[in-house]
Design goal:
CATH architecture: 3-Layer(aba) Sandwich
Number of helices: 14
Order of helices and strands: HEHEEEHHHHHEHHHHEHEEHEEEEEEH
Distance between the termini: 36 Å
Strand order of the largest sheet: 1-3-2-14-13-12-11
Oligomer: single chain
Radius of gyration: 20 Å
Mean pLDDT: 93
Helix content: 25-40%
Structural class: alpha+beta
Shape: globular
């Protein structure tokens, strides 16, 4: 008996979007999906809203439309949006030195790092330059002190290297210095609550009750990941292991309640799509405006198209967001922007189709995974008809 037999797929697709349901079902039948949901809006209206499978490791709790789950680096897109909102209101100059807002950051030759370098993963600080105790991921102030004392691995702007963990602390501390509040507080009060979007960085006890358990890679796969990070060079080792963010920690209360804005955002598929809906519609949905149309354009304008020395692949990046790459087989147009997460989750906006997309799941993939891509291929096949 499959997971889908125990807890059948629920929800709806609008007429013409039936292939998306078929792709979602196929993920359970052929790709070992355990629990997942996908939500798509066009012109602010839902055209796909599907969920199914199990939310807990024992496979006794069904995935519901309000089930939230850790979405790893998909969280980075939310922080990027927050930074663009600060720029929208004249509180942040994206071309300014980071030290203008965070003076202590300038230590040890970091005075030339600009805010844009933080957003484009070109700052030269994919990890701290000294060994950081593992538990520091839960101590914001301590992590910031380590970053202040660190030296750069390359000159700002000269290389592109995924700041897998530090993206959250670096941009998040700039936000905190400007607003006086944490990233999680800003997200909740300025984005999630106005939009009624079910997303959070640092979840409440009530929200934890709705959280799905992450199904991490197997022990062998986890060991292979650690080996890959360790032998991948100094930049990769710093980015992923100093400090580490182990998948098995994601099911702990300590992880869920912490604010680690590169890695531990929690969302439902509806919430993730809702967050991107205004960005698909020129910056506003209903009476809620997050950005001007001009600043949405700035948010999705390509800044980097190069081989990432940490990720090892060619990437397209804007100021904080990942851009689609049709040349690499991505079915989305080149203007689609958002962020994927380790293991498979994905959220993005496609202004050309006025479309927002959210996909969340609990079985983490080890390497290349086709679940989100299969959903996108089926979705865009519907739009082309």
């Amino acid at each position: 008996m499959t997971t889908n037999d125990v807890f059948p797929i629920s929800g709806f697709v609008a007429p013409g979007f039936e292939p998306v349901r078929a792709a979602f079902e196929s993920n359970f039948q052929k790709s070992a999906e355990v629990g997942a949901a996908v939500h798509v809006t066009v012109d602010g209206q839902a055209v796909v809203d599907l969920w199914g499978g199990t939310a807990d490791a024992a496979r006794t709790r069904p995935w519901n439309p309000d089930t939230i789950v850790n979405v790893w680096s998909t969280t980075k897109g939310w922080l990027a949006l927050a930074m663009h909102m600060l720029a929208e209101h004249g509180l942040l100059d994206l071309e300014a030195p980071v030290a203008r807002y965070w003076p202590e950051f300038a230590q040890n030759g970091k005075d030339g790092v600009l805010v844009r370098h933080l957003l484009t993963h070109t700052a030269g600080l994919p990890g701290c330059s000294m060994k950081v105790p593992d538990a520091t991921i839960y101590d914001w102030a301590a992590m910031i002190r380590y970053l202040e004392k660190s030296t750069l691995l390359w000159a700002p702007g000269t290389k592109c290297g995924y700041h897998a963990g530090t993206f959250g602390w670096l941009n998040g501390e700039v936000l905190r210095r400007i607003t006086g509040v944490s990233v999680g507080t800003f997200l909740r009060s300025e984005i999630a609550e106005p939009l009624k979007a079910d997303v959070a960085i640092g979840v409440t006890p009530e929200e934890i009750e709705r959280a799905a358990d992450i199904r991490p890679p197997s022990p062998l796969q986890s060991w292979l990941m650690r080996v890959m990070f360790a032998v991948g060079g100094k930049a990769k080792s710093r980015a992923f292991t100093n400090p580490p963010r182990p998948p098995r920690a994601a099911n702990t209360r300590r992880w869920r309640e912490a604010e680690i804005p590169s890695s531990n955002g929690h969302a439902s598929a509806r919430g993730l799509a809702r967050l991107y809906t205004p960005l698909a519609l020129g910056g506003a949905v209903g009476s809620v405006r997050l950005l001007s149309e001009a600043n949405v354009q700035r948010a999705c304008q390509e800044q980097i198209h190069a081989r990432d020395i940490v990720a090892g692949s060619v990437v397209r990046r804007s100021l904080g967001f990942m851009l689609s790459d049709p040349a690499e087989g991505d079915p989305r147009p080149s203007t689609a922007f958002g962020h994927p997460g380790m293991g498979g989750s994905l959220g993005f906006a496609d202004p050309s189709h006025r479309l927002a997309f959210g996909y969340v799941m609990n079985r983490m993939a080890f390497a290349i995974d086709d679940r989100a891509s299969a959903l996108c291929r089926s979705l865009y096949s519907c739009l082309e008809k």
